[in-house]
């Protein structure tokens, strides 16, 4: 099976009756096929003048990905004593052996980074040097040649390529076509049969990285086939929940089907290496009852291979209590007379009956833009054993504006609350209660704006 794991997780285990939570679906797949045995690969790269600029940079990125993937799947050891090997030949008017066969990825990557583009194009010399690199190898022998143009100097390389094929060298050709006269038919004359499996072309240099990763999968034994394709998932939530929205997934596309279903389509997964795709969406409880509830009602899955994996069905506990404000403390009215700049107040006797707890709240406001004050509110409640959520404190803060050049994170520290113990609810007459379940909510809004909706109002 290509699909190796499916999962569904919830961000919360308990929510209030109208609370929200995030649901995350994930799918993991592995590439099809099996890895080949040890092989020797000659990577023959065109560095002629026509490759200058963006084409050469994209070639370098693609070649380095190719090296890493082939060596990783070929069982290369860190000491280079075993596994597949890669060598690098580069050519323009003549060919140069930049790195002999090795499994040292770092050395190969350095050689690729050192390539510069100049000169004419001598494919025959490139094939000859690449063949010499593989001469005497007792492993599977592979030659990959990349070019972006027709031969401008040297002999016709067709006969040289044919001789290499007769001596057991499998030839793959990668072409950046349409730039300097090169066409696919030319590459097909050089490549091993069947040509459709050994020739990859693209008219866009930007696609070279994808092309080389795909070719590495072919050579290393995955046949270029993704682990899974045309994956379609439809998650329908329970009638006591509704979907508020979703975060666009990094892989595939998602869409809401009304308020209680979401669909997710992944065209391909694990094309060249094990890969996990994830989708996160937000739901809210809208039912009238509490208790443990499964969030999803059903999940439908399909893919091109007809696989039918199952997803877990996690539940969340919905609390049925309501928020009750505590009784207000005893108050004393104070009057300040006009022009009286100091006032004395005797608040009477205050009895400290029970030891309390101190709660310190720290939080970070993300991406606060410059030149705008921020108002933040911290709300503290306590969930009682009866299931009722009671208020324990509320504080507002005005944070001064910063004058930075860009938005920045603001760290707020030491917002403190004193939480007296309540013997009527926690069952103790004095001292600290056992455990207390507190909840903290933070709200924040920008206070200032430069927008003038009405414009300047003229004064008559």
Would you write up a description of this structure?
The protein has helices at 54-73, 105-113, 123-134, 158-166, 184-190, 195-198, 208-219, 423-426, and strands at residues 3-10, 14-15, 20-29, 39-46, 85-91, 95-102, 140-149, 169-180, 199-202, 228-237, 241-247, 253-256, 261-269, 275-285, 291-294, 296-302, 315-318, 323-324, 356-368, 374-383, 389-399, 408-420, 437-446. With 460 residues, it is α/β, with parallel strands linked by helices. The strands form six sheets. Strands 6-5-4-7-8-9 form a six-stranded mixed sheet, with helices on both faces. It has a four-stranded antiparallel sheet with strand order 1-3-14-11, with no helix packed on it. α1 runs antiparallel to α2 (105-113) and α1 packs parallel to α7. The protein is elongated and about 105 Å long.
Could you tell me the strand content as a percent range?
35-45%
Q: Compute the average pLDDT.
A: 84
Count the helices. How many?
A: 8
Distance between the termini: 80 Å
**Arrangement of strands in the largest sheet:** 6-5-4-7-8-9
Structural class: alpha/beta
Q: Bin the helical content.
A: 10-25%
Regions with little confidence, pLDDT below 50 for 5+ residues = 76-81, 322-328, 426-431
Large-scale geometry: elongated
Radius of gyration: 34 Å
């Amino acid at each position: 099976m290509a699909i190796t794991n499916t999962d569904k997780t919830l961000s919360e285990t308990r929510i209030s009756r109208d609370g929200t939570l995030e649901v995350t679906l994930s799918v993991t797949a592995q590439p099809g096929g099996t890895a080949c045995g040890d092989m020797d690969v000659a990577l023959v790269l065109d560095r002629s003048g026509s490759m200058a600029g963006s084409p050469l940079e994209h070639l370098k990125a693609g070649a380095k990905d190719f090296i890493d993937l082939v060596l990783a799947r070929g069982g290369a050891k860190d000491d280079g004593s075993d596994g597949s090997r890669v060598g690098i030949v580069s050519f323009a008017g003549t060919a140069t052996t930049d790195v002999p066969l090795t499994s040292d990825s770092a050395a190969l990557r350095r050689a690729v980074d050192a390539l510069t583009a100049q000169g004419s194009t001598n494919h025959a010399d490139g094939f000859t040097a690449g063949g010499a690199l593989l001469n005497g190898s007792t492993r599977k022998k592979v030659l990959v040649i990349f070019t972006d143009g027709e031969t401008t100097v040297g002999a016709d390389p067709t006969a040289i390529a044919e001789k290499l094929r007769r001596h057991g060298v499998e030839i793959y050709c990668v072409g950046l076509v349409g730039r300097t006269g090169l066409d696919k038919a030319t590459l097909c004359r050089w490549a091993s049969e069947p040509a459709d499996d050994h020739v990859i072309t693209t008219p866009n240099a930007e696609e070279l990285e994808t092309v080389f990763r795909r070719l590495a999968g072919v050579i290393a034994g995955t046949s270029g086939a993704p682990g899974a394709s045309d994956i379609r998932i439809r998650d329908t939530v329970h009638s006591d929940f509704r979907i508020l929205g979703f975060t666009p997934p990094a892989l595939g596309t998602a869409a809401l089907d009304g308020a209680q279903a979401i669909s997710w389509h992944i065209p391909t997964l694990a094309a060249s290496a094990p890969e996990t795709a994830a989708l996160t969406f937000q739901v809210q409880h809208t039912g009238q009852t509490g208790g443990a509830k499964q969030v999803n009602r059903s999940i439908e899955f399909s893919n091109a291979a007809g696989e039918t994996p199952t997803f877990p069905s996690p539940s969340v506990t919905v609390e049925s209590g309501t928020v009750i404000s505590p009784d207000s403390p005893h108050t004393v009215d104070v009057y300040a007379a006009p022009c009286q700049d100091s006032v004395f107040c005797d608040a009477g006797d205050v009895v400290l009956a029970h030891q309390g707890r101190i709660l310190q709240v720290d939080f970070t406001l993300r991406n606060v833009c410059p030149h705008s004050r921020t108002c933040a509110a911290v709300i503290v409640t306590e969930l009682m054993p009866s299931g009722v959520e009671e208020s324990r404190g509320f504080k507002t803060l005005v944070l001064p504006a910063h004058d930075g050049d860009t938005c920045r994170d603001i760290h707020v520290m030491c917002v403190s609350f004193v939480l007296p113990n309540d013997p009527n609810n926690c069952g103790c007459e004095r001292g600290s209660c056992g455990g207390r379940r507190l909840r903290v909510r933070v709200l924040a809004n920008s206070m200032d704006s430069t927008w003038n909706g009405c414009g300047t109002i003229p004064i008559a």
